[in-house]
Design goal:
Strand 3 and strand 4 form a beta hairpin. It contains 17 helices and 16 strands. With 595 residues, the protein is α+β, with helices and mostly antiparallel strands. It has a 5-stranded antiparallel beta sheet with strand order 6-5-9-8-7. Strands 11-13-14-16-15 form a 5-stranded mixed beta sheet. A 4-stranded antiparallel beta sheet has the order 2-1-4-3, sandwiched between helices. The C terminus is likely disordered. 52% of the residues lie in helices and 18% in strands.
Length: 595
């Protein structure tokens, strides 16, 4: 109950009022007591310091009836001495303190020896005050004549009943004032605490809303005091906090999107080596599911120990390679944050394709070198033979050598032209001359061009369209080059007396063309690579037939430039079937559809 600020303020005010009243009561009681004590001794001193009165007392005390005369004089000055015969009385005592007469005969026989009275018995005036005593007294010795002997002692005693009564009444007044003050304090403390607590409660509620993520509602500023300033500052803080959190959230969303869609894999481990983050690319590269149970040692301890990575000083990093299911991964490992709270971040990059491209590049260079070296060697050999033989070679033999030189030269020219064509297609410099043309007419034209070559080998080349074929948009000469290459390959690799069937049709928004033969076919292991540059299934027969190994590579580049697809399709029996699919109207740049 006393934990609330309202009750604390109320109790503080009540304790404050009670303390003030207690201090004030004690001060008043002490002041009243001191006042009466001082007043008592001032009255005694004023009366007995008068030379005439004191001399008269001494003379009266020296007479034979001196006690009676002293008593009369004391009664005459009772008012000046404040003697009221109830609480303050005078007593006339002998030299030994025995009671002779006075204003209180009953109390005279019960007098106690006090320090002042003992001083008077020794001939000294006793008027020392004691605030703590429950009485006030003064003792004045009266000497007889010149002998210096004590004739009597005038003893004035006040039992402080007046002071006690006054203090009692004062205490009652203070208690009454305290009760009234406490009631007023309760009311004021309630109002004051409400005035202070209600804004604080509103601030608390606002802080709870901010803690729960509600930054939109602002607290009303109802005053210009410190609490009002605090409320305004709180509203500003909530606004700044909202903007900061929004900025942090935006950055977090950016990072999440980046990690989610980036092609490189990212995995992070905490200080204990437990997985705390991974993106889909990392799971794809590592070929396994990654959850919180995965550890660094389980995945990458073969590269570097975890403790070694934590001890690595930024911005240093480590790198290495690992192979996962035939794919080569390049890894970059670096610590983040400090050793106590940080961990290790690993970036994975799939370099399998790079390795393959590098191998293909090396193979391409080797193939180009080989393809050019063979005809050059032949040209050189036959040319040197003609030069060295002089006129000794028969004309027919010399003409045969020259024919071989011309054929090899033509072969090198075809290779260079094919390489230039591929280079232009790769760099995008081979612009397509698009136009609307009859797809069927183009196929028939290519078939007529290859009819003589097929007839020479006693092959049956036929074209069977599947219904009407539409006009399409494309570069007719380039596409006829593709058709010529595919049909030409079918004629080359089909034995004499074989069959080549060309079919075509439409499928949705596409046209297609298939070339089937019953030739030597393509082994399963070579089917994925027949469109690679310089790749030939039967290298010996390809060279014999004048092939360069670039025809299908050029065909694929041209078809893909038309947003089409070329590839092998299932074939019944011996032989091969190649299918070309092209859109009737190619999409605009940047709108290439998934195939």
């Amino acid at each position: 109950m006393f934990r609330s600020l309202h009750m604390k303020l109320t109790m503080i005010l009540l304790l404050l009022v009670t303390s003030l009243m207690a201090v004030m009561g004690a001060f008043l009681a002490t002041s009243v007591s001191n006042f009466y004590v001082n007043s008592f001794y001032e009255q005694i001193d004023d009366v007995f310091s008068s030379a005439s009165f004191f001399s008269s007392l001494r003379q009266a005390a020296a007479q034979s009836d001196g006690m009676e005369r002293v008593r009369e004089m004391m009664d005459a000055n009772a008012g000046s001495l404040g003697i009221d015969y109830r609480t303050r009385n005078y007593y006339i005592l002998d030299a030994d303190g025995g009671y002779l007469c006075g204003s209180d005969d009953e109390g005279g026989g019960k007098l106690e020896s006090t320090p002042n009275l003992l001083a008077a018995e020794l001939g000294k005036t006793g008027e020392d005050s004691d605030v703590t005593a429950d009485y006030m007294d003064a003792a004045i010795p009266l000497t007889a004549g010149d002998s210096g002997s004590i004739a009597c002692i005038v003893y004035i005693l006040d039992n402080k009943d007046t002071v006690s009564n006054l203090n009692s009444r004062l205490f009652l007044i203070i208690i009454q004032a305290l009760v009234v003050g406490l009631l007023i304090s309760l009311l004021l403390s309630f109002l004051l605490s409400k005035a202070m607590v209600i804004p604080i409660e509103k601030l608390t509620a606002g802080a709870e809303r901010v803690a729960s993520g509600e930054f939109g509602s602002k607290l009303p500023v109802e005053s210009t005091d410190e609490i009002g300033v605090l409320t305004g500052t709180f509203n500003e803080m909530a606004g700044v906090l909202q903007e900061t959190l929004q900025a942090v959230e935006n950055e977090r969303n950016k990072l999440d999107t980046l990690f989610l869609h980036m092609t490189d894999g990212v995995v992070a481990f905490d200080h204990d080596g437990l997985l705390i983050h991974s993106n889909p690319a990392a799971r794809e590269m590592l070929r396994r599911e990654l959850d919180s149970s995965c550890t660094y040692d389980e995945l990458f301890s073969s590269l570097y120990p975890f403790s070694q990575m934590l001890a690595l000083q930024r911005p240093n990093y480590a790198e290495g390679d690992m192979v996962v299911e035939g794919r080569t991964l390049e890894l970059y490992l670096a610590p983040f944050s400090d050793q106590e709270r940080g961990g290790v971040l690993i970036v994975l990059h799939d370099i399998t394709e790079q390795h393959r491209n590098e191998e293909r590049r090396k193979e391409f260079v080797a193939n180009v070198s080989h393809e050019l070296r063979t005809p050059l060697t032949n040209v050189r050999s036959y040319a040197e033979t003609l030069r060295d033989a002089g006129g000794d070679i028969p004309r027919d033999t010399a003409d045969g050598f020259l024919d071989i030189i011309i054929n090899e030269t033509d072969r090198m020219t075809h290779i260079v032209q094919d390489l230039l064509t591929l280079s232009r297609l790769d760099t995008g410099n081979a612009a397509l001359n698009l136009s609307r043309f009859d797809f069927r007419d183009a196929i028939e034209n290519v078939c007529r061009s290859n009819a003589l070559a097929a007839k020479r080998r006693d092959q049956a080349l036929s074209f069977r369209p599947d219904g009407d074929l539409p006009l399409i948009t494309g570069d007719r000469s380039r596409l006829e080059q593709v058709m010529m290459n595919v049909i030409g390959n079918a004629i080359k690799y089909t034995q004499n007396g074989g069959h080549i069937l060309v079919t075509a049709g439409t499928a949705g928004e596409q046209v297609w063309m298939e070339v089937s033969d019953d030739g030597i076919g393509i082994p399963e292991k070579d089917r994925e690579r027949i469109f690679d540059r310089f790749y030939r299934v039967d290298k010996a027969r390809s060279r014999e037939s004048g092939g360069t190994g670039l025809g299908l590579s050029i065909a694929r580049e041209i078809v893909e430039r038309h947003f089409g697809v070329i590839g092998l399709v299932p074939h019944q029996g011996p032989g091969t079937t190649i299918r070309i699919a092209l859109p009737i109207v190619p999409p605009q740049e940047g709108e290439r559809p998934d195939r």
